[in-house]
Design goal:
CATH class of the domain at 118-191 and 422-438: Alpha Beta
Shape: globular
Structural class: alpha/beta
CATH topology of the domain at 118-191 and 422-438: Dna Ligase, domain 1
Mean pLDDT: 83
Distance between the termini: 31 Å
Helix content: 25-40%
Radius of gyration: 23 Å
Number of helices: 13
């Protein structure tokens, strides 16, 4: 664990160095596309400044000067399965983005949706004897957290303080400089499969790049699509990708839960391909042009040329009704949403003051999806697009770019994590199991 703490610290230092140089690449390694953005920083926000602990400042300080996407290869369920194919896809996206930016980039910050993320809620308290809280005390209370025994095959991807309390005053975002007798902290820790992170790091190294940070797609999608009020009062972001559907829950501007369902838009496409007996590329086109999840009387009469190129004239001029297409798509979309619902219930989402749900990601563009989602999830549901950031090309403003844009915001203003503080090495966290979202009811 000490090793990971140092790795994360060295990535943080590398990110600072990259920002001082003024340019960094953002890489969203997805199952259906790899997106690359090149960011230029103007030097106004470097690292952790005098801001509050954990605050995610606005989006000042950078502009997008290069953007490119390429079809993903060698990635399944958000995890790299064929190193060389993924390496060549990353190189393709990176070279196009560098050409547009007209400069070479050495440092990259990446996000991924695989690795079976798991959330834990940790807490700790220390005695202050009426003294003023210093940076060292913050490090000390975090180091006192009981860390679950999350297994040797997993690594900590995020470890963020989400709430401090000093004596009876809870909900503090930054206790430094205040006086008190007992300082306590609530932390959110997210672990992922270590091999998945290592494969990603290795792949990026093979592309002659320095890895200056990794993040969970679920987390960064939430950063870019939930508006401030939603992040404050309690909302979930559901990112429907190609191979996976990621979900994150935010409250008080912090992520307190993340998970991934190993199903996404590609599964809908393959159902269409099997149901209509057509190649995947045709199925994807038909899904995009005619897909939906809510049938009306009109759809029985609307015929779709499903075509083909087998050379068999009868087979190639087949048609199907739109109602038939919806009949194939809807059960899979329902299955994905039911699974999301089960994860939200397990996290205790219903205990939040507000329960807004925001759908984003490329798969969220299926017509009628928001209506079906509010039926299944039983909440207020809206479709979300990422925040506008300076210089972002029009083609990269859609919901499919939620995680790439969120990762840019994360790169510019990372929330404080465990490794941003000098932990006393003898106090490096001990381990015991705690439940993820238990402390909501106590604190809010």
């Amino acid at each position: 664990m000490m090793n990971l703490y140092q790795t994360q610290r060295s990535m943080r230092n590398m990110r600072r160095a990259a920002m001082q140089r003024g340019v960094v690449a953002i890489l969203d390694v997805g199952s259906s596309k790899i997106a690359c953005l090149v960011l230029r920083f103007d030097g106004s926000t470097l690292g952790r400044d005098e801001g509050e602990i954990g605050s995610l400042a606005g989006q000042s300080g950078f502009r997008v000067i290069g953007a490119a996407t390429t079809r993903s290869r060698g990635v399944r369920f958000g995890e790299i399965t064929a190193m060389q194919e993924t390496e060549s896809a990353i190189r393709t996206a990176l070279q196009s983005a560098q050409r547009m930016a007209n400069m070479r980039v050495d440092h990259v910050i990446a996000c991924f949706s695989g690795g079976a993320p798991r959330s834990y809620g940790l807490d700790a308290r220390i005695d202050m004897n009426g003294e003023m809280v210093s940076e060292q005390d913050v490090a000390r209370v975090m180091a006192s957290c009981d860390v679950p025994d999350y297994g040797d095959t997993r690594e900590v991807l995020h470890a963020q303080p989400v709430n401090f309390a000093l004596d009876h005053r809870s909900g503090l975002s930054d206790p430094r400089g205040q006086l008190g007798h007992t300082l306590s902290v609530d932390m959110h820790m997210l672990t992922a499969d270590a091999l998945v992170i290592q494969h990603l790091a290795h792949c990026i190294k093979r592309c002659d790049l320095e890895l200056a940070g990794v993040a969970s797609s679920a987390y960064v999608s939430g950063i870019s699509t939930l508006v401030e009020d939603e992040q404050e009062l309690g909302s979930a972001c559901i990112d429907l990708g190609g191979g996976t559907t990621s979900l994150s829950i935010f409250i008080k501007k912090h992520m307190i839960y993340a998970d991934t369902v190993r199903m996404g838009g590609d599964h809908v496409t393959s159902d269409i391909s099997m149901g209509l007996q057509i190649p995947t590329a045709n199925a994807e086109r038909i899904k995009t042009l005619y897909g939906g999840v809510k049938a009306t009387g009109m759809d029985d009469r609307e015929m779709i040329e499903i075509g083909g190129d087998t050379g068999d004239f009868e087979h190639d001029r087949r048609t199907a009704s739109r109602a038939e297409l919806i009949g194939i798509m809807r059960p899979r979309v329902e299955e994905i949403l039911e699974e999301v619902r089960a994860r939200l219930d397990a996290a205790g989402f219903e205990h939040l003051p507000s329960q807004q749900i925001v759908l984003t990601g490329g798969g969220s563009q299926i017509p009628g999806l928001d209506g079906l989602a509010s039926k299944i999830l039983g909440q207020q549901v809206r479709l979300g697009r990422p925040l506008r950031v300076h210089g972002l090309p029009q083609a990269a403003t859609g919901p499919g770019f939620a995680s790439a844009v969120g990762l840019s915001l994360f790169a510019a203003h990372p929330q404080d994590e465990w490794w941003d503080f000098d932990m006393p090495s003898d106090r490096y966290p001990h381990r015991s199991l705690k439940r993820a979202v238990r402390w909501f009811r106590d604190n809010w």
